[in-house]
Design goal:
Layout (H helix, E strand, L loop, with lengths): L1 E6 L3 H12 L4 E4 L15 E2 L11 H17 L4 E11 L6 H15 L8 E4 H7 L8 E12 L1 H14 L3 E3 L2 E8 L5 E7 L5 E11 L5 H12 L13 E9 L6 E5 L6 E7 L2 E5 L3 E2 L13 H14 L10 E7 L15 E6 L2 E6 L5 H15 L24 H11 L5 H7 L14 H12 L3 H26 L4
Parallel strand pairs: 1-2, 1-10, 2-7, 4-12, 10-18
Antiparallel strand pairs: 3-6, 4-6, 5-6, 8-9, 9-10, 11-14, 11-15, 11-16, 12-13, 13-14, 17-18
Amino acid sequence: MLDCLVLGGGITGLGVARLAARNGWSVALIERDDIAAGASGASSHMLHGGLRYLEHGQFKLVREALAERTAVARMAPSLARPVRFLVPLHRRGRMRPWRLRAGLALYDVLAGRARLSRHTMARSAEARALEPALDPDGLLGAGLYSDAVMDDARLAVAVARDAAMHGATLHTRMDTVAARPAEGGGVELAARDRETREELRFTARVIVNATGAWSDGTRRDLARMLQPGAPDPPHRLRPSRGTHLVYPALTAGRGLLAFAAKDGRVFFVVPFGGRSLVGTTEVETSSPPGPRELEPTPEEIRYLATELARVLPAASAARPLAVYAGVRPLLESGGEVGGATREHRVFVDGAVVTIAGGKYTTFRVMARDTLAAVARSLGRDPASLHEDTGPLPVPLADDTDPVTLAAQAAEHEWARSVEDVLRRRSLRWLADDRGLGDAPAVADALARRLGWSAERKREEVEQYAARVRAEQALIARALEVTS
């Protein structure tokens, strides 16, 4: 019998599995898709404290996230790096210089010993010298501070590899088909491989529900199977979709934090992989979200493109290369969804422990809090849990040829599709051709490893190409209105 079975292969579930394995617990993880296929591979690519959360008085969260920012970056230096961010101040903007200066100073204080470079303030001419593309009209100056930029999907894969190295077993593309109380306590759960249709059975003392934006649905389904006739557990989430656009590099290597004119929301321009990631939006979805709620909309694309052009006028002539969206598992709250907390909570329903809310940067904290609840359920001392901050496994080199990349990703990193390799095991999705030129070679290599037929190889290449075409069509449809 396993000590715990983790449901969900995003960064939260992977962090739980890693910590459990590092503490000598028997643990397995099942994921219905690929590792980091949801929000954990569709973030703003930042390890950050959340400068904007200071406006909502979430000082504890910011302090905790800043400490984790530095700890995680040190564990994976090849996947995270410090980046200087510039916050432009305009005469007509909502952020006053004194207020920004105070916020940046507080950000430094809350970071404590985990602080990166101290913040500074720049005059208008200095700001333009640093970032010549800034709109000069009414520019008063700028604030500068540091955060970290990371490769979200490959960092999640590194955490998965670390979990496996310490004894965790990971299964991807698995659907949960049944669960029942096990004799003598715990839960017996059956899961079916989506491709082979093979059914696996797991018996665990505790089930950890780490399914992100789907946590309410998973918790409900488990309750119905384990306690037939009992009332459904209440919803605890208020998910929101965040959309991002990918542009050619728009800045001189710095990030930007700006405020949208339409609604005052914070948005970022993040330098990553030689490109600029622009985001994000905040669109409330159902809990759990429906399939159509996972996709970006033309309205979100126009919103981001319009606000970007206001801050960087030259960007109006640039064409986005890609668009992606992820659904955040925000905790239920009142007011506007944009003001919802990024804190997390753990809910215990008998042998099912649910971790809800949180943010990518604090995945280790969420893992500790979740396993503390599991330990109490198992009659163990939560204080005995220990966290190792040693380095995570080095990811596969992104400059290898596509055949080697695909073979290693299939053998060591659970890749089972062309998209898994190009989108979440490499940066090839950011290439000018979005990795389409490498797709046939990747499919060939995966076919040899996974036993695909010639037809399956063709389908894999076409599915990836169709995904890219759909993104391009959506971008064109959204921006033709304003062009």
